[in-house]
Design goal:
This protein is α/β, with parallel strands linked by helices and 309 residues long. The chain is built from 12 helices and 13 strands. The chain has helices at 38-48, 63-74, 117-121, 124-128, 141-154, 170-174, 183-190, 197-209, 248-261, 266-280, 293-297, 299-308; strands spanning 2-5, 9-16, 30-36, 53-60, 82-85, 91-98, 103-108, 132-135, 157-160, 178-179, 214-218, 224-228, 231-235. Strand 6 (91-98) and strand 7 form a beta hairpin. Helix 1 packs across helix 9 (248-261) and helix 7 (183-190) crosses helix 8 (197-209). Bound molecules: alpha-D-ribofuranose (RIB). Alpha-D-ribofuranose (RIB) is lined by residues 7, 9, 11, 36-38, 41, 93, 105, 107, 138, 246-247, 249-250, 286.
Length: 309
């Protein structure tokens, strides 16, 4: 079983030709409300890929919170541990997606920041019964720390997707088995430049020196790099036509967790995650873009149909 601890947001998505610059107003083409939040997305993706997934997070006592919870349940996530807080509204994310598929996201965390270390402690036994704990950084850092400590004392594999980037102290770094930053997050966490693959390997190694087990650094259209104590290996991305990159990192993380939960090795997990990430960018939205297992099983056919278009 995979336990995901993280955020749930309602994504307020506007498609535009170009993301506006500071001070600029542009007209959008369409507006949609789509279930999102990095925690919700990662749990949803893992459930669609066939894993047994348990999500711990918070929503507000409002209509958006109810929609998010129901939508996750409908996709097969065990959502019983999603707490409804009366002290804040459900988190929202304002997302602008431009024609290239790139996006700009601002999150108002709301109830996500009400998830406390005590709330996590109340789920110690569920967390301890998992094989993998998957976390991101859209909830308070002390809650992340408490979650990692429980997982470590139960001997569970931990994956931290450090998004959005935040300072991580050595207690946290030492409790991470697999860290999955993108280049920008790796640059922030290591304080080193990440322009070339050699830079990325060196920045990743600096975090291994501080106690991280291993890293899978996501590089968008340039694939990813796996770095551990034995060295580094680069993997190419599948070339697809990106419509919307929202949640590509989330589905990649979920896919890694799903394969590792199933006992597969890291190389196979990364190959699978690259397929899932590639499929995600070809559809709009966060949870609306996450592929099901049967779709990924048909990846080769799907890919040839993409090329033909
Ligand atoms: O990773 C994508 C997610 O980031 C969006 O769904 C949005 O809610 C923000 O959390």
């Amino acid at each position: 079983m995979i336990t995901v601890i993280g955020s749930l947001n309602m994504d307020l998505v506007i498609n535009t030709a170009k993301i506006p610059r500071p001070g600029e107003t542009v007209l959008g083409k369409s507006f949609k409300q789509i279930p999102g939040g990095k925690g919700g997305n990662q749990a949803d993706a893992a459930a669609k890929l066939g894993a047994d997934v348990h999500l711990i997070g918070c929503v507000g006592d409002d209509a958006m919170g109810a929609i998010l919870k129901n939508s996750l349940k409908a996709d097969g996530v065990d959502a019983d541990a999603i707490l409804v807080k009366t002290t804040a509204a459900t988190g929202v994310a304002a997302i602008i997606v431009e024609a290239s598929g790139d996006n700009a996201i601002t999150v108002a965390p709301g109830a996500n920041y009400e998830l406390t270390a005590q709330d996590i402690e109340a789920h110690r036994s569920d967390i301890s019964a998992s094989t993998i704990l998957l976390l991101q950084l859209e909830i308070p850092l002390d809650t992340v720390r408490a979650s990692l400590n429980i997982a470590k004392s139960a001997g569970i594999k931990t994956i931290l997707n450090p998004a959005p980037a935040a300072e991580l102290d050595e207690e946290i770094l030492r409790a991470i088995d697999i860290l999955t930053p993108n280049e920008t997050e790796l640059e922030f966490l290591s304080g080193q430049k990440t322009k070339t693959l050699a830079d990325i390997e060196s920045a990743g190694n600096s975090l291994i020196q501080k106690g991280v087990g291993e890293l899978v650094v996501t590089l968008g259209q340039n694939g990813c790099m796996h770095i551990n104590q034995n060295g580094a290996k680069h993997y190419n991305a599948y070339k697809v036509k990106a419509i919307d990159t929202t949640a590509a990192g989330d589905s990649f993380n979920a896919a890694l967790a799903v394969y590792l939960d199933a006992g597969k090795d890291m190389a196979s997990a990364i190959e699978f995650a690259l397929k899932v990430g590639a499929m995600t960018v070809t559809k709009e939205g966060a949870q609306t873009s996450l592929p099901f297992k049967y779709e990924v099983d048909d990846f080769d056919n799907w890919r040839s149909s993409q090329v033909l278009k």
